Amino acid sequence: MPIKITSAILNRLKFSNIRMSSNLNNTEAVSSKMEKLNMASSRDQTNFILQIVEDDIKSGKHREVITRFPPEPNGFLHIGHAKSICLNFELPKKFGGRTHLRFDDTNPMSEEVMYIESIKNDVKWLGYDWGEHLYYASNYFDKLYEWALELIRKGLAYVDDQSVEEIRESRGSLTVPGKDSPYRNRTVEENLKLFEMMKDGEFPDGKCVLRAKIDMKSSNMNMRDPIMYRIIRAPHPNTGDKWIIYPMYDYVHGQSDSLECITHSICTTEFELHRPLYDWFQEKLGILRTRQIEFARLNLSYCVMSKRLLLHLVNTKIVSGWDDPRMPTISGLRRRGCTPESIRNFCNKIGVAKRENMIQIELLENCIREDLNKVSTRFFAVLDPLLVEIENLDDTFTEKVEVPCNNPNYTRTLTFSKRIYVDRKDFSESPSSDFYRLYQGNEVRLFYTYWIKCTKVVKNGDVVEKLVCEYDPKTKGGKLEDKSRKVKATIHWLGSNDWFPATFRWYSRLFTKPDPKEGTEGEFGWLENVNKESLKVYKGMAEKTATLLKVGEPIQFERTGYFTKDPDSTDTEHVFNLTITLVDSFASNKESQLHKELEKKKRLEAIEARKAKKGSPKS
Questions:
Q1: Which of 470, 503, 489, 478 has its CA nearest to residue 388?
Q2: CA–CA distances in Å: residue 395 to residues 192, 237, 497, 537
Q3: Bridge-partner residues for 468, per DSSP?
Q4: Which positions fall inside the tRNA synthetases class I (E and Q) anti-codon binding domain (predicted)?
Q5: Does 278 reside within a domain?
Q6: Mind listing the pLDDT tens digit for each residue in 98-132?
Q7: Confidence label for 604 from pLDDT (cuts 50, 70 and 90)
């Protein structure tokens, strides 16, 4: 739903001199556009998977719904996987079903226990539980081997001695049919013997493979005698050194679904052309037939999702690791301070469709803001401190200021005295006509205490070192009986003993373009669009009470942004990561673009509807 900006919030923002009334209006408008965009993407006709499942239940085809989330443990999950996790775990809930977590661990060269544990942690963090239904494809290796022997006996599989390059060359292309392997017509007996020798380690790695015998002239490249097994001498995270032949994903996928009685095998559209092979194996083996259904994967603006590209960012030190808060990985989003509720809400809003499209990152950001606004504890922080000296106060003067806290677990007390700190962004030497905060001769309200007026600016060279101000004792609590006298800005502050040193990591988008690959050439041309200003570090001050928060706990530093405490924090220095700004600074630029995208979606849906109507049988 759109961000709710109440009159109280607007007044507070006005007093705080966040002169963004137009931006706030744009934020509401853009959020509304996004809502419509989301509604267009998740209407009943596009949430086709739910319709399929409902029809299967109504027809009696299935009594229960069983789905699975089958990651390969060769890397960290990203927000695209979160969409699949939410879909696969939420769908069965509607029908009293269940979801399996299955690791498709068929390649020992790239899989590690570290990734397995990370994936389990991510799924749990998102709020899902697989219960007793944790599976590994490697647990089925014995059965898969038996089925491979069965296919050989049926004349549907053969051992091929061609090199990987020769096999690739003989497969042809989309316009050129493939060529039969010279080993394709080996006898059943010879293939059985050779496959057993492969299993027993009598051949070196890469010497031969087992291939399904289907159709080398098929228009579907995946049906041109795909490889089923290859020789890899590497220890496996689950099976150790038991096997030196490992099955390919396309052979394992459908058979694992069949063994687990999966009713709806949901995957992304890049596997659509693999579905005939999925069906072929199950049909030829005569096992339980399961149904593969494809949906559009998530493409998010200002992000790359490919594991290969993300790995390159890590290896080249563009980011600090897989959990860098700028990464679209679940671990990165978690470290940045995103909540699982906000990610689930985002995945629900974008819906499920067959057609791929670019989802605007602003929708995710608004989901994050919406949730953090509800759950964040509010404190003050001064990212770039500027000393203020109150000239009409004695050095011994102190006054405790009770500050309201929206979290009953914490209390907030500040001390107003001769020396306080404000944020440097709240002062200007050469103010514009719409700047209402501190400048020489101007008066502002300090949150929950007095009004102060800047009387002098103290500089060291070109650098402002200190502001000299006077306070008005009649304005205690920020109020004044004389209604004719007004201030146009309210700013936050910290007393000289109210703060703890803190590091603030100000994160912004990792790329400068919505599509990082747009207008680039070469394998790594997209790196040209890396935002070199995506991380700024401030050494500032945090309200002492804020340092009591636990790592990962959401914080709103008032007038600054939503933050979370980073694991790098120590007893002597606290590190806070910016999760998201309070207001979408990109809103005004995106409103027109989002409107165009909404109109484009409507046109595409109208075309699809006409096609469907044209193709429907006449009554």
A1: 470
A2: 93, 67, 13, 33
A3: 389, 456
A4: 490-566
A5: yes
A6: 999 999 999 999 999 999 999 999 999 999 999 99
A7: confident
In 3D space, the residue among 94, 27, 21 whose CA is nearest the CA of residue 583 turns out to be 27
CA gap 467, 368 in Å, rounded: 37
Same domain, residue pair 368 and 389:
no
Three-state secondary structure string covering 415-451: EEECEEEEEHHHECCCCCCCCCCECCCCEEEECCCCE
Burial category of 306 from C-beta neighbours within 10 Å (exposed 0-12, middle 13-18, buried 19 and up): exposed
Residues 205 and 58 in one domain: yes
Domain of 579: which CATH number? 1.10.1160.10
DSSP string, 452-472: EEEEEEEEETTEEEEEEEEEE
Rounded CA separation 336/564 (Å): 7
Beta bridge mates, 378: 556
Instruction: Kindly list the catalytic residues.
Output: 72, 297, 307
Long-range contacts of 535-538 (CB under 8 A, 24+ apart): 535/326, 535/505, 535/506, 535/507, 535/508, 536/505, 536/506, 537/503, 537/504, 537/505, 537/506, 538/383, 538/384, 538/503, 538/504, 538/506
Q: Which residue has the higher pLDDT, 45 or 162?
A: 162
Phi, psi of 437 (to 5 degrees): -85, -150
By CB atoms closer than 10 A (0-12, 13-18, 19+), residue 523 is exposed
Nearest to 49 by CA among 229, 266, 319: 266
Share of the chain above pLDDT 90, in %: 81
pLDDT in tens, 49-99: 999 999 999 999 999 999 999 999 999 999 999 999 999 999 999 999 999
Is 594 among the domain residues? no
* Judgement on whether residues 261 and 389 belong to the same structural domain of the protein: no
Q: Of 127, 165, 515, which is closest to residue 344 (Cα–Cα)?
A: 127
Give me the domain span that covers residue 335: 307-376+503-586
Please tell me the predicted confidence (pLDDT) of residue 15. 36
Entry pTM: 0.84
CB 381 within 8 Å of CB 502: yes
Residue showing tokens 């029809």: 55
DSSP state of 69: E
Residues 150 and 284 in one domain: yes
Number of independent structural domains in the chain: 3
CB 560 within 8 A of CB 583: no
Gyration radius of the chain over CA positions:
31
215 shares a domain with 228: yes
Query: What is the pLDDT of the chain when averaged over all its residues?
Result: 90
Number of other CB atoms surrounding residue 26 within 10 Å: 19
619, amino acid identity: S
10 Å CB burial of residue 9 (0-12, 13-18, 19+) is middle
CATH number reported for the structural domain that contains residue 279 in this entry: 3.40.50.620
